[in-house]
Amino acid sequence: MADPAKKPAKSVTNDTELLEAPAGPSIDAEDVARFSALAAKWWDVKGEFAPLHKFNPTRVSFIRETVQDHFQRDPYALKPFEGLRLIDIGCGGGLLSEPMRRMGFEVTGLDASEKNIGTARAHAAQGGLDIRYMAQTVEQLAASGEDGFDVVLTMEVIEHVNDPESFLKTCASLVKPGGLLFVATLNRTLKAHALGIVAAEYILQWVPKGTHDWNKFLKPEEIEGFLSDTGVSPDPAVGVSYNPITARWALSNDTGVNYMIVARRDLL
Ligand SMILES: C[S@@+](CC[C@H](N)C(=O)[O-])C[C@H]1O[C@@H](n2cnc3c(N)ncnc32)[C@H](O)[C@@H]1O
Ligand SMILES: [Mg+2]
Q1: What pLDDT shows up at residue 2?
Q2: 3.40.50.10240, 3.90.180.10, 3.40.50.150, 3.30.160.270: CATH of 16-265
C-alpha cells in the first residue's frame, strides 16, 4: 500500500494504485489514489480521518436543520426525511451517508475510489443500513440519465478535484426543482494555509502531509461564481471553526478557513 504521506507517481497508466480510479474531467487521479490508500481507515476515529469525525456532528446538525426548515419537516420526528432522495458525492467511507440514511433519506453514496466504496459498503452492511453505494464519477452518473435529488451533498471534495467549476456544475445539475445543494471546502486564505495545512498537516499532524493543496482551495465568491448560471442560488457562506480551547468545532461567522455553502433551486 502506498505511503499516504508520499505523493504517488504522476502517471496514471504505470501505477496500479491509480488504475482503479475512474477517469473523468474532474478526477485528480493522484489525489483519489491518496484516499484509496487510506480506505481501511475511514471509520478509525483516531486515524487519518479524525478531523472529519470531529466535525461530523456540527455539519450533520447543520444539514439536518437546513433541510428541516427548507422542506418543513417535523424537527421531532425520528426519521424526518423519509421520501427525500439524497446523494453524497465524494462520500469516502460514508461518514455522512450513514447519518443521512438514519434520518430517513433514501441515500446514494458516490465516490471515484473503488476502495472507499468497498469500505463504505462493508460498514453500512455491519450497521444494517440500506445505502446505494456506487464507484463512479459524478459525470458518469449525470450522463446515465439518473433522476434528480432533493439534496445533493459534496462536502470536503471540491478542493480535491480537477476543474472544480465543471465538477460543481455537474453536481448542481443533479439538484431537483425545489432541492438543495451543500458544498463544504477550505478557503484560499493565508489563515487557511496556516491552520488547514501548516498546523493540521505538519504541527498537529491531524491529517497526512500532502492531504491538501492550498492552490485548490476556493474562495466563497468563486463557488458562487461557478453556480451563477446553474439555476441554483447560493445563500451566504457559513463558517465552521475549531476552538482550540474547547477542542470543538462549531458554526461561526468566520469563513476564513472551513466553510459551507447551501444553494437552492426554485420549484418549477
Ligand atoms: C476528504 S474526502 C471527503 C469524504 C466525505 N465527503 C466526508 O466529508 O466525510 C474526499 C473524497 O472525495 C473523493 N473524490 C475526489 N475526487 C472525486 C471526484 N472527482 N468524484 C468523486 N469523488 C471524488 C475521494 O476519493 C475522497 O473519498
Ligand atoms: Mg479535504
Answers
A1: 38
A2: 3.40.50.150
Q: Is 145 left (phi over 0), alpha (psi -120 to 50) or beta?
A: left
Residue 14: predicted pLDDT: 30
Name the residue with higher pLDDT: 20 or 254: 254
Q: Note the Cα 161 to chain centre separation in Å.
A: 11
Return the higher-pLDDT residue of 28 and 23.
28
- In the reported structure, the alpha carbon of residue 111 is separated from the centroid of ligand 1 by a whole-number distance in angstroms of 6
Per-residue pLDDT tens digits for 79-132: 999 999 999 999 999 999 999 999 999 999 999 999 999 999 999 999 999 999
Ligand 1 atom, smallest distance to 28 CA? 16
pLDDT in tens, 172-192: 999 999 999 999 999 999 999
Q: Is 74 annotated as a binding residue?
A: no
Question: Is 188 labelled a binding residue?
Answer: no
List the domain boundaries for the chain.
16-265
Nearest ligand to the CA atom of 166: 1
Output the CA 164–ligand 2 centroid distance in Å. Answer: 13
Is 90 marked within a binding site?
Answer: yes
Whether ligand 1 lies within 6 angstroms of the CB of 197 is answered as: no
Residues with CB under 5 A from ligand 2 (ion): 156
